[in-house]
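Hi team,

Below is the intake form for Bifunctional DNA primase/polymerase from Kitasatospora sp. CMC57. Please confirm the fields before the structure is written into the shared record.

FORM ID: S-0412
PROTEIN: Bifunctional DNA primase/polymerase
ORGANISM: Kitasatospora sp. CMC57
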Amino acid sequence: MTDQTLIRGDRLTTALALAASGVPVLPLRAGKVPFGNCRNCADNQCGGRPNMKTPGPCHCLAPCHGWAAATTDPAVLNSRVWGRAWRAAAGVAYHPGGAGLTVVDLDNEEAIDWASATLPGTRTVRTTRGEHWIYQGAMGSANAVRPGVDLKSTMSYARWVGPGTGTVTALPDTVRALLVREPTPARPVTASVPAGGGRCPHRSPAFLERGIAMAEQRITNAASGVHATVFGAFLAVLSTHGRCGCLTDAHTARLFAAAQAKGESAWHCADAWANAVHRLGL
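The structure came back. Fields below:
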């Protein structure tokens, strides 16, 4: 990603050069946002897109599904459908996680000062408001991990603004630790207790077992959109049991096994679980 022609060339030329280096790319509209889903994929009625190797389970040839549309396939990038998008595009984006990268997006000078004092040096790209620090290694993505700092890696995209300067270095634990939240303090149970006694249902083994079994069945029954179904099942389990201390590694293993039986990789399982945890603020 050091070739200066990537700055001078048009957007498709830039995209093809990035793709040839193993970086999945997609076009951006004005406002630095991806192109919306086509009519057949509107509202994810096609089932979503579980991976970034093909245009999607609907076999759509348009640059649909946001970050998941990113591809390194020159035939797709040069296709007639994508050609219309490139002609209307305002920029090029890439999927850092798909290239094994993490972008630490620093939105202002204060964030840059923090990074300079805290993080090891790496390739740096100047942006409109701040800088992108690019590290080798993928991880979960999240916004506002600290003031003015976003993390863009898996299930995310970053705008291409040039090759930058410096050498890409290994993703440090300091960056990974930005996704680790402080444990939520224990809170008193406020659920009402039936007359004559009773227990919080979150502490009931039967209630928990039923929830895990339902999540397993939901994943097993998925006919399409498996990745989205897995994420939804993880989200449902965590929203009910993520704060009450019921879940164990054995429960997580059962859910991951169900997802992998439907073709999900261990990496996708871990990533979906981490994203569900962060979505709920756990």
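SUMMARY LINE: The longest strand covers residues 101-106.

Thanks, M.
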